[in-house]
Amino acid sequence: MTEKTYSIAVVGAGAVGLSAALAFARDGFKTVLVGGLDTRRDGRTVALLNGSVRFLEALGVWPEIAKAAAPLETMRIIDDTGSLFRPPPASFRAGEIGLDAFGWNIENATLVETLAEAARGCENLDLVPDFAVGFEADEAGAHLTLADDTRIRASLVVAADGRNSRLRQIAGVDARTWSYPQSAVTTILAHDRDHRETSTEFHTRHGPFTLVPLPGRRSSLVWVTSKVETERLSRLDDAALALAIERQAGSHLGAMRVEGPRGLVPMTGLSVNRYWSRHLALVGEAAHVFPPIGAQGLNLGFRDVASLRDAVVDANDSGQEPGSDESLNRYQQSRDLDVRLRTAAVDGLNRTLLTGLLPADFLRGAGLLALSNIGPLRRIVMREGVLPRVGVPRLMQGTVPV
Questions:
Q1: Which InterPro entries match (predicted)?
Q2: Fold of 3-177+267-396
Q3: Which of 14, 132, 265, 304 sits between 20 and 30 A of 357, alpha carbons compared?
Q4: How far apart, in whole angstroms, are the C-alpha atoms of residue 48 and residue 338?
């Protein structure tokens, strides 16, 4: 059995894990990234909000990512629930808060491929395409055991190994999980009309139906609906599915064609009360899972990484180890409120669509009407949606005008 020593070990080679490894290595910490790449294309995209764009700029990877991304200049919400309190469509424009775009939409596989290419050429970073099967921690640090019996010693282990995180389970961090009576169909579409950099979200009685711009006359689809309906849709051929999507969208982008593989995403949630254990920090879906609504999941994961990076750098500057309790306590304090608020907002929106109760419809409709007609309120909500104003990690600062 061989043992290698690092300052920081990141487990999980998705977008969050790759960004964490890049961030720590660029700050001079001897870092290892453990995990195999998954670049399968399943029709899923990610809308990188403005704070995430600034974070990726700080890592030096944004220029390459931007080549395959489309800006989201306008967000349009249409109430298609059939409610008695249905408000008129509402549009939110990035220019109102001094931004060119709220964010940029890119295929998830392309994002991972670009981050992986940057990681291969990064100093202070070793890549180990293996699986972590064991984790132990004591006062001196943490030990990872890999599938090939290699042992890795590190002051801090970053668990970016997803919703079924093995490291979280081994460390004994409890997770609360829940599910919704829905699934989401995802795919890539071509269409006859220009999207004009507008993301359009239809609120239906079974969940949001969202079309998000991609470069050219292309968009990504996230269609949240009942499990019975998603199973029916998944059995359709491409032509029939495209027609069903066009009808659900009211033909506002014209005729559609399916241009990529499909995905079927379960609607589930996960939260933890602790974001750390001894010498271990949880980031991304190891700490929180959202249904694909509101572009919160990966953007929160990047905020996890940027916040953890600040805590580690501050600890290092004061002579403490990256995995010290003081460092990880700072990380916990920086993430708890942000994640709780986003979890409640996404969960609340989805559940109000499903209830069909008149009071819930009234509150949702009144809220959207207020946002449409009260400019200062609308701008506050838009800024908060792009990036919270309090406790912004340093690599994401300076992105939203006052």
A1: FAD-bd, FAD/NAD-bd_sf, UbiH/COQ6, UbiH/COQ6_monooxygenase
A2: FAD/NAD(P)-binding domain (3.50.50)
A3: 265
A4: 17
